[in-house]
Predict the structure.
Amino acid sequence: FEECWRITKLMVTGIAQIFTGTRSVEELGGPIKIAKFSGEQLSLGPLAFVNFAALISLNLAFINLLPIPALDGGHLAFYAAEAIRRKPASPRSQEWAFRTGIAFVLALMLFVTINDIASLPVFGG
């Protein structure tokens, strides 16, 4: 559990560094980079591959808990707001928040996929 906590802190630090500009967004990876690194880890042995798979799983869990509407963290944020306000957000505001959240997630997926493709050797990456 200590290792999971350490990795989670590194993820928070990494996101903060991306937002402050001290870390490049080119480091963000999607399915192509995950496949590339999976192959590299597998070549190092089964233990390295299992550790990498656990890291990917932890990353996905962390992202899912971010307060982005349409993800689980967004639902938790709505529940927290409801507890504080003592009433739920209107269905219309929830719908727009979830639409915005989905648009953000889709834009992020598109960005990391394009980032992955641009990093391929055929494109000079």
